[in-house]
Amino acid sequence: MQRRQFVTLARNAAVLAAAPALMRHALAQEGGISGKNITIGCSGALSGPLAGFGQDVKIGAEAAMAQINARGGIHGRQLQLNIVDDGYVPQRTAENVRAMLSQGSAFALLSCVGTPNNAAILPLVEESGLPYVAPLTGAASVRKSVRNVFHVRAGYADEAQRLVQRLSEMGLKGVGIVAMDNPYGRELAEDTSRALAAQGAKPALLVTVGTDGRNVAEAVAKVAETRPAALILATAGSVSVEFARQLRKAAPGVLMAGVSATFTSDGLKQLGEAGSGIALTMVMPDPQRARSQLVRDYQAAMRARGVQDFTLGSLEAYVNLRVLAEGLERAGGDPTRAKLRTALAGIRNLDLGGFVVDYAGNAPYVGSRYIDLAVLGGSGRFLG
């Protein structure tokens, strides 16, 4: 055999022998991960009508990350958050996630905000195989059999059913609905109407408001004219605040109730006395009351960041990051997105300290059914 032929064959054999190691290295270099860091992506409303939700995601997730990183991170890697503003505009959400994928700036996705926004990115998430934990929506329309989306919070349909059942137990007849004129509001209005139908009733009225809130006064006038015994708010963010304020003046006797997405934490504060007596469902424990180990851990993480303002939104983000971190731990020291998806799907009865997450069964993966009812006081906090 000639020397040149021998060298060529030897080199080819060496390449073939090294192929498994090269493949492992390539997998380890999936976007958003290095030997030192794991970057988690998020597109959230840091501006616009739902800005409070995006701010809470940033604060809560970063508090959880700091707590985990202080203990050595995940298999020696530090967690980082890459959150990009979308202003609650679905097209911008899709553009942000598409950029993260093309730039390799996120290993996994966490808690993008909004029903229409999540609907816009689900095709991208499914096509890319990007693991996605805890979309910030409870809409059934985005809880499809997607292999790599892992919801944490309970669904809006369950929240609406709980509210309607409670109003029925109180003997209230004539329940109206005000809905935001977008996919979130329309779907929640349908959920509420079905819950009423199960009680042998139908909406006393159904009015809509734009996402920009321009027709709030008109909607308030319709409610004040009809005077339902109670009104369920299928609205969110700043629109909810303005509507509640105006209705309190125009028809103070109408009981208002909403779901977990109705008000941001800032919105609860802005309501002041106008919020007193509003009933809300909660998909997380009360962040102000350290009755569970979860809330105590959350409060400690927030205080370590110099934050004393404990909110439902930041607690939810804290929980969501903890769930993602659990998946990363189980994925091992040489994680890939496929390993992370498998690890998350394998979570069973994960007790975070009084809050259990369980992805038993097949997709769609929904980890929690926790729903509680609370009533607002005049300070923006829940009555104990």
UniProtKB/TrEMBL annotation:
Presence of the UniProt keyword Oxidoreductase in the record: no
Gene3D superfamilies associated with the record: 3.40.50.2300
The keyword Nucleus appears for this protein: no
Record keywords: Amino-acid transport, Signal, Transport
Signal peptide: 1-28
Listed Pfam families: Peripla_BP_6 (PF13458)
PANTHER family linked: BLR6548 PROTEIN
Name of the protein this chain belongs to: ABC transporter substrate-binding protein
